[in-house]
Design goal:
Blueprint (H helix, E strand, L loop, with lengths): L26 H4 L1 E7 L1 H4 L8 E6 L17 E7 L7 E10 L2 E7 L1 E5 L5 E9 L3 E6 L23
Antiparallel strand pairs: 1-2, 2-8, 3-6, 3-8, 4-5, 4-7
């Protein structure tokens, strides 16, 4: 197209709704929403675009059943607090599982999850200022979670 900038298509501000958890109609009432979701090369619209998910969490949130998943690639899972008065703190409390180990997060952090390691779910127990949740990988397609583990570990969702 004449006049179109060469790299404009690389500014991604509209992404498909994640299939595993649709965006809520009222993100404020829900407590947050997935904002950016790049998976499977944006459904073919941008081949080779690697996986990226960015979610804004604004109040305590429990995702439901204890589900974990593993990938055939390494992944980064990031939690960032947005309170500028204490930028290295999460300004909240999040629970994150790696295999059968529960971690309580209170600092802004990135978790490196090696390929093949089961991880998630997460629970946001306390949110005093918005928390940015980001998952990313140098792979084009992120797989769906496995079936829920039943019963869930006794410590799941409990501080």
């Amino acid at each position: 197209m004449p006049g179109e900038k060469k790299y404009a298509r690389y500014i991604i501000d509209k992404t498909p709704e994640p299939p595993s958890y649709p965006r809520p109609a009222d993100p404020k009432a829900h407590g947050g929403s997935n904002v950016i979701y790049i998976n499977n090369g944006l459904d073919g619209a941008m081949p080779n675009a690697t996986f990226l998910e960015a979610t804004l969490i604004t109040k305590p949130l429990h995702p439901g059943p204890f589900r974990q998943h593993a990938h055939s690639f390494d992944e980064y899972v990031t939690f960032i607090g947005t309170n500028i008065e204490k930028p290295f703190d999460l300004d909240g409390v999040a629970e994150f599982w790696i295999e059968d180990e529960k971690y309580i997060l209170t600092k802004s952090c990135t978790i490196f999850v090696p390929k093949g390691v089961f991880h998630c779910p997460f629970v946001f127990h306390e949110v005093n200022s918005p928390i940015v949740f980001i998952a990313s990988a140098a792979a084009t397609h992120c797989t769906e979670p496995r079936d829920p583990i039943d019963p869930a570990p006794a410590a799941y969702g409990v501080l």
